[in-house]
Amino acid sequence: MAEKAANLQEAFEMMAARFNPNAAKGVNAIFQFELSGDDGGKYWIKIADQQMEAHEGEHESPTLTIIATAENYLKLVNGEIAPMTAFMQGKLRVKGNMGEAMKLQSIFGL
Question: Residue 101 sits in which domain range?
Answer without folding.
Answer: 8-108
